[in-house]
TrEMBL record:
Membrane topology: Multi-pass membrane protein
Gene name of this polypeptide: tolQ
Subunit: The Tol-Pal system is composed of five core proteins: the inner membrane proteins TolA, TolQ and TolR, the periplasmic protein TolB and the outer membrane protein Pal. They form a network linking the inner and outer membranes and the peptidoglycan layer.
Highest taxon of the lineage: Bacteria
Keyword terms: Cell cycle, Cell division, Cell inner membrane, Cell membrane, Membrane, Transmembrane, Transmembrane helix
This protein's name: Tol-Pal system protein TolQ
Major localisation: membrane
All copies of domain MotA/TolQ/ExbB proton channel, residue ranges: 84-208
Function field: Part of the Tol-Pal system, which plays a role in outer membrane invagination during cell division and is important for maintaining outer membrane integrity.
Alphabetical list of InterPro entries matching this protein: ExbB/TolQ_transport, MotA_ExbB_proton_chnl, Tol-Pal_TolQ
Presence of the UniProt keyword Transmembrane helix in the record: yes
Transmembrane stretches, start-end: 15-37, 132-153, 173-195
Length: 235
């Protein structure tokens, strides 16, 4: 019976209600963060794969009008960020080209604004879930520490009611209190590591979005000033 009581499950079941509530909150936070880590990791891998695939098509010398028709005629996944940015920029280019008497510089400025709006939307999608991971990583240790302090406080209050305090009397209360800190660290460490990793990958993707936007603007600028008949046809 004593060994069962000193097991982890025994200590958790014998903990006070407040400490048990703290443990439940931390376990739920850990489960939610792990779900988000798996989900965001898969989404980022798919985003990186789709980005590389589209860049190969874009830089292979394919006609922009053809790319626009191919990607615009089918539903795109949310992770296809570069294609969404391309469609937004080229659509603005086509619409502005139809306006009579518009200056070429005004066309490029309109395309630039559309690209920045599309990039901002994709950056917002990249940041989804990071706030939760940051919250779990920063708050969980303190929640666990609160459970530990509360448990140790109850242990010392219990010791004041006995005439002789021994290690066997003190150990269970302190051990069950320290479990709360351990669970808090278990929830916080993966969340912090995932947050740092996802933030770095998101910044890399964001930089590539801006680089692609500049590349697209350069190609549209050349087509616009070339004055070729294909530009009017594309519009």
């Amino acid at each position: 019976m004593q060994s069962e009581h000193m097991s982890v499950w025994g200590l958790v079941s014998e903990a006070s209600l407040v400490v048990q509530l703290v443990m439940v909150i931390l376990v739920l936070a850990s489960i939610a963060s792990w779900y988000l880590i798996i989900q965001r990791g898969a989404a980022l891998r798919r985003s990186e794969r789709l980005l590389k695939t589209f860049l190969q098509r874009f830089r292979s010398g394919a006609e922009l009008t053809q790319l626009y028709r191919e990607d615009g005629d089918q539903p795109l996944p949310r992770e296809a960020a570069l294609q969404h940015i391309f469609l937004a920029g080229y659509q603005a280019f086509s619409q502005l080209q139809r306006q009579p008497g518009i200056a070429p510089d005004a066309v490029i400025e309109g395309v630039e604004r559309s690209l920045y709006v599309a990039i901002s939307e994709q950056e917002e999608r990249l940041e989804g879930g990071l706030q939760f991971l940051a919250t779990v990583g920063s708050v969980s240790p303190y929640i666990g520490l609160f459970g530990t302090v509360w448990g140790i406080m109850n242990s010392f209050l219990g010791l004041s009611m006995v005439q002789q305090a021994t290690l066997s009397t003190v150990a269970p209360g302190i051990a069950e209190a320290l479990i709360a800190t351990a669970i808090g660290l278990f929830a916080a460490i993966p969340a912090v590591m995932a947050y740092n990793r996802f933030s770095a990958r998101g910044q890399t993707l964001s930089a590539r979005y801006y680089s692609f936007a500049n590349e697209l603007q350069a190609r549209l600028h050349r087509r616009l000033h070339a004055g070729s008949p294909s530009v009017a046809a594309a519009a």
